[in-house]
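HUMAN: Please help interpret these tokens:
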Amino acid sequence: MHLARTAELTTEVDAFAERHGGRVGLAAVLGELDRRLWRTWAPCLTRHRAWTWDRADRRDPEWWPQGVSVEPGGRHVAVSWYAKKGGVRISFLSPTKRRYRHVTLVVPTASGHEPLRVHAGGLGWHGSRLYVAATRAGLWVCDTGDVVRGDDGEHLLPVRFRLAPVADDGEPLRFSFVSVDDATQPPNLVVGEYGNRRQTRRLAEVPIDGGDATVIRHDVVRAQGVARVGGRLYLTSSHGPWALGSVWSGETGGFRERRRALPMGPEDLAYDAGTDRLWTVTEHPRRRWVVSMRRSSFG
């Protein structure tokens, strides 16, 4: 499999920023966290720290949390949401301040912008870049320095380019989730497929700027997220909206499951090397948590 970097939307992004009075960047978002993040407990059998959203976001049936990624040191966390009617937003969280704010992702056009309409099942954060999983379309990439403030005070972030899969003779990979492996030089992306027992279930290691990918099969049913630490892989898997989720760990072909390790509805997975902790997010209304766990809990 090969991922090709599409032409960058430089002209469109510059025009978009100019129409909105110039870029304000991620610093403006982090300086204006307008929603309360609540410290709480989540139902699972792993020692953990957990937070939840404000009342409206906990219950919202339209927007669903999916991807998660962590700034080194765990100072800030990013969570992607998709809207059932179309659209993607990123929530930037400060766990220490217990505050967060939403930023809407858009596709800039010659005369304006339109919503980014993907599932956003995974999120990778590397430097100022965000990588957003787009299922059959690959990965959309944006730069947090491009954040602008809209007319109504809403923050908007345009995508810049896409790492697009090039068709070959094999079964197209589904970009269900993604994480960044900073331990490699240069860093790589680890992409994975969600699949039931009848679907393919694969992982792919991809250069951070695109190129040839190494694809391997995994045997985890309903995998939702992946993180690689050294030679070891960690995957989340879900068991429906009410059963607790699992963490699988090990090497390809030899994963060990720890059941009931996560709350119900776990999604993406991220690793923070600075604190040696794994992070996940859960999706179902009224059962929505951001969860941080020691990696040592899983061997």
